[in-house]
Specification:
heterodimer, A: 375 residues, alpha+beta, OB fold (Dihydrolipoamide Acetyltransferase, E2P), 2 domains, five-stranded antiparallel sheet, B: 278 residues, mainly alpha, MetI-like fold, 11 helices, 0% strand, globular
Chain lengths: 375, 278
């Protein structure tokens, strides 16, 4: 470790810009002037739908793609002039990309063999790396003899053995089945804590991002929509895109029609909703976010003032621990709620009163620009 | 098993005839290579190894007048020439074909698809055209016709065969394995030697064996560009037949067939080896 205090700007991406030509001759900004700083030993996730630029950014950091303009600094040094094989960065690929003709031991030891590390140390470090990912003693097997989950772990061991300054993970869990994926999420997070190196994890799976990350960067069409902790991203999304992309959401459009000293009244197609948000101006257009799990069938004033909405029930879906209730508000807009098992009979067409904490209502100014942010 | 319909039975009979048509002449040659009748080679007269012995200049029960191979030395010399030509041309064509295939598969450059097209053309070009063109070129450029011109001539079309076999292998390879190698610190040469080459090796060997057989077997192009001292086996056999069909032909053909089958089987074995490399 070169520094005892983790640098808050260990990795700096400055005005990264990358364009692609479409086959029709149009231009797509895969990365639109992105700036970002990442602290040392942080688990950061690049989250976004396919085509948002997250994989392009990862490839550029790894050295498989080039920037049109901008710079990337790692530990104070620009790396964009270095070819991929000279960068102190390693990658876990989506399809693992193990060398099919080499044993597990040779796959994991590949980086050390290239670096000409002596045999004794090499074998010892291979064994250590395999132990770290929970696969000790399988050096002699071939990748084709392993399950998907085991191949994933071998790819991980191979990528960490060079002790990179930065580990890139390109949707490494997407090919695994759900239970294994959940287990690997926890293991990856533990491994990152243990190694203390920076992980940049790319995914389109918002649950995965929320589970593992210290910071999430939400990318949308080549721009950063929001940078924040999973909690911030989930509870206080800055744009409608983030609100819709992360978790289940009810989003209503409205306009501020009156202000009082407690807050504002917002009209949403005939429904009036009260918000504590004092920053909103009279006449301002606003999006309202209410997460389905914040709605309840029974009033509970203990944690603060509550408000209520009336929904006509269209459909009830049992999802194990909870019920999803789908219906529409009095103004005809679709709405949903997530509630515990309840004694109230739930009949289609029924009018339900839904209660929520006024503080749980999150407002997003309708015109919100993308940010260029720092973590 | 399901009962066959009349049409199905007809198709079975058809396929039997199809394969008979394909292989009967070859099978007859093999059988008649053991025929002891020296006058009419298609009339069975008893079993003998004499024709094989005669090829290799061994003592036979034949009288001197019935020995048809002019000189065993000439035959063996033609065989040796063929082997030298095939081995050299294969070596050069394998190197050229493999490196071209890697270049076209891994890099994008100007006139990329045009180069690809140029590599397919020698395979569809009529042999006689290529033969004449090469002859005019060699004579015009002042080459003395001999083994070296045959080797150069064979390389022109063998490179295409190697290119196609190796290209197919490269197309089936996960290109991310090369990215992974670079990511782990290997430069382009180390990546080629440790990852790309081992993964395409079955294709390279398959392409080389295919080239070897094609080179051994080539008559038309070789005929144009071989010199006086550089007769290959197919050209030599053509010369023999010109002076009348002789029983040794059957024995020589059988030996060549055996040789080709062995090489081709090896080629197919290497080509299919570890095809699932993902």
């Amino acid at each position: 470790m070169s520094a005892s205090i983790p640098s808050p700007e260990y990795i700096k991406i400055r005005h990264a810009h990358r364009q692609f030509m479409t086959p029709e001759g149009g231009i797509i900004n895969a990365l639109d002037n992105i700036s970002l700083s990442i602290a040392q030993s942080e688990f950061i996730t690049l989250l976004g739908p396919s085509g948002c630029g997250k994989t392009t950014l990862l490839k550029i950091i790894a050295g498989f793609e080039e920037l049109d303009s901008g710079d990337i600094l790692l530990d104070g040094q620009s790396i964009i002039q270095q070819p991929a094989h000279k960068r102190p960065v390693n990658t876990v690929f989506q399809s693992y990309a193990l060398f099919p003709h080499m044993t597990v031991g040779d796959n994991v030891g590949y980086g050390l063999d290239i670096a000409k590390v002596n045999k004794v140390e090499r074998n010892q470090r291979v064994a250590e790396a395999l132990t770290m990912v929970g696969l000790s003693g399988i050096e002699q097997r071939l990748p084709s003899q392993l399950s998907g989950g085991q191949q994933q772990r071998v790819a991980l061991a191979r990528a960490i053995i060079n002790r990179p300054k930065l580990l890139l993970l390109d949707e490494p869990l997407s090919a695994l089945d759900k239970n294994l994926r959940l287990q690997m999420q926890l293991e990856l997070k533990n491994l990152q804590t243990e190694l203390g190196i920076c992980f940049i994890f790319v995914t389109h799976d918002q649950e995965e991002a929320l589970t593992m990350s210290d910071q999430i960067v939400v990318l949308n069409s080549g721009k950063i929509d929001q940078i924040g902790t999973p909690d911030e991203i989930y509870h206080t999304p800055k744009t409608e895109f983030v609100a819709r992309f992360i978790g289940e959401s009810n989003i209503l459009s409205g306009m501020v029609i009156s202000k009082s000293e407690n807050g504002v009244n917002i009209d949403c197609n005939g429904c009036t909703i009260f918000s504590h948000d004092q920053t909103l101006k009279l006449g301002e257009e606003v999006k309202l976010l209410l997460r389905p799990e914040h709605l309840s069938l029974t009033p509970n004033e203990l944690e603060g003032p509550q408000a209520q909405l009336t929904m006509t029930l269209n459909q009830t879906v049992f999802v194990g621990s909870d019920y999803q209730l789908h219906g529409e508000l009095s103004n005809g807009l679709p709405f949903s709620a997530l509630t515990r098992k309840t004694n109230t009979p739930l009949i289609k067409g029924q009018q339900l009163t839904l209660y929520y904490q006024v503080d749980a209502l999150h407002t997003i100014p309708a015109k919100q620009k993308s940010i260029k942010g720092h973590i | 098993m399901k009962k066959q319909t009349p049409l199905g039975r007809l198709l079975s009979i058809y396929s039997v005839f199809f394969f008979l048509f394909l292989y009967a002449p070859v099978i007859l040659i093999v059988i008649y290579s053991f025929n002891s009748n020296p006058i009419n080679i298609m009339i069975w007269d008893g079993f003998t190894f004499d024709w094989y012995r005669s090829i290799f200049g061994l003592a036979t029960s034949l009288t001197d007048t019935s020995s048809y191979v002019d000189s065993t030395d000439q035959l063996l010399n033609a065989l040796l020439n063929s082997l030298i030509v095939a081995a050299s041309a294969t070596l050069v064509a394998t190197f050229l074909g493999t490196s071209t295939a890697v270049a076209l598969a891994r890099y994008r450059f100007k006139l990329h698809s045009f180069y690809r097209l140029l590599l397919f053309v020698p395979m569809v070009m009529p042999d006689i055209v290529l033969g004449i063109a090469l002859l005019i070129f060699f004579v015009g450029a002042g080459f003395t016709l001999g083994n070296s011109t045959i080797i150069i001539g064979h390389c022109t079309f063998l490179t295409s065969y190697v290119f196609i076999v190796v290209s197919a292998r490269l197309a089936g390879m996960n290109p991310l394995t090369e990215a992974a190698s670079a990511d782990l610190g290997a430069n382009e040469w180390q990546t080629f030697r440790r990852v790309t080459l081992p993964l395409i090796l079955p294709g390279v060997i398959g392409g080389a064996l295919l080239s070897f057989i094609i080179s051994m077997d080539d008559l038309v192009i070789t005929y144009f560009i071989s010199g006086v001292d550089s007769t290959t086996l197919p050209v030599f056999i053509l010369g023999m037949i010109r002076r009348g069909i002789k029983p040794e032909i059957n024995a020589i053909a059988t030996l060549m067939l055996l040789f080709s089958v062995v090489i081709a089987s090896a080629g197919i074995y290497f080509k299919s080896k570890n095809t699932s490399t993902h």
